[in-house]
Amino acid sequence: MGTLNKKFSIIALVIFMSINLHSTDEQLFSKTKSFDKYGGYLNIKKKAKGYFYLDKYKGKSFLITPDGYAFLNIGLTHTMNVTSKQDSKVDYLEHHCSGSMDCANNEIFKNFNDWGFNSLNYDHDSSTRVRIPFMASSYPTGKVSYWRGKGVEFPDVFSSEWKKQSTAILERMKRNYGENSFMIGIYWADMPSWDLKDTKKVAGRTWVDAIRSLPEGSAGKREYEKYLKNRGDAANDQEFLVMIAREVYSHIGPITRKLYPNSLIFGERYAGRSLVYDVIKEALPYIDVISVQPSEEHFNHAKFEQLYKEMKKPIIICDHAVSFKTKDFKKIMWKTVENEEIASQSHLSYLEAMKLPFMIGYNRCQYIDRFKKNKGGGTLKQGLIRDDGTPYEEMVNKLKGLNWQNHQYFLKQ
Known about the structure:
Layout: H1 2-25, E1 41-45, E2 53-57, E3 60-64, E4 69-71, E5 73-77, H2 92-97, H3 101-115, E6 134-137, H4 160-177, E7 183-190, H5 196-203, H6 207-212, H7 219-231, H8 237-259, E8 264-271, H9 277-283, E9 290-293, H10 301-311, E10 315-320, E11 323-324, E12 336-337, H11 340-353, E13 359-365, E14 370-372, E15 379-381, H12 393-411
Parallel strand pairs: 5-13, 6-7, 7-8, 8-9, 9-10, 10-13, 11-12
Antiparallel strand pairs: 1-4, 2-3, 3-4, 14-15
């Protein structure tokens, strides 16, 4: 009996391995025969370079896959959240997948394949980024994000200590992501606090305030005092803010390029509500794409056309969502509309904008529901699936239709 059980165990293991091997070999959108393994459009051929790069076709900017086909990034962010339930009622990984990341990854791949998403964007488990294109992310300036509020921390970027720390952070990114042909490019900070007025209101102090209040003799303080001496009555916080930006980008830009000479640099994910043009211009020598996280329900043509006119680089929507009301949650993150039909119209608005010559991608936030408790009771960060793994069917079906409609448009070019 023991021998028989052993035989059955071996057979079961072989079957399990063959299923897993088959699933990890499966190509994104393979059933349509119109895409390369990265999700690139086979009808628009460019040079194969072995890595993602930028090029134009009929006057429109596209990402080009390593195999040389035009690629429009349609992403779904934060698949990493399948690994942590935060304050949600259900632990998805345990409840839905018995703790198996293979199970979770197969479901992510199945859903992306079905729903028409071709990018993980950022925030994903290392085991997930083997079949779907993704963005690497690194935070060399630390805790400077606008959404941190009073918890924001502004480093002395003029100091040798910060330069060493930021270099180490970028080098760690290289070790974490390695060389992977599915890597589209690299992000830096998320929604950095560059807007002086907004930052003062939300955080209570700005980056300039932080440098100004440094101890005597510190690198930043010396730089600020030298600036005041040189500019005299013409000195102002906005001008010194640009000097801070110049110090940041001129350091992290060349290091990132040296670490990944063939990778696209998408730079910081700027808050769309406060695009500080003179700061962004300091980043231009070091980045390939302008990354924006807008807050508007619908694509703002005038804002993005002006941004492209000023910066003359392709633009990606790096993170965006419009949520919809549910009976289970009182407070939901992002702008919240009445129902899934209205929310889907926002998605349509941004997908339609991808036809513009300078737009190269749209990334939706996020994959799975995550609830976080706070003093007000808690906030839902709404995904396309609930914490137990069941999809919001109406929303999923609408977005699926819109994504495939968008792909079909480019497959006919």
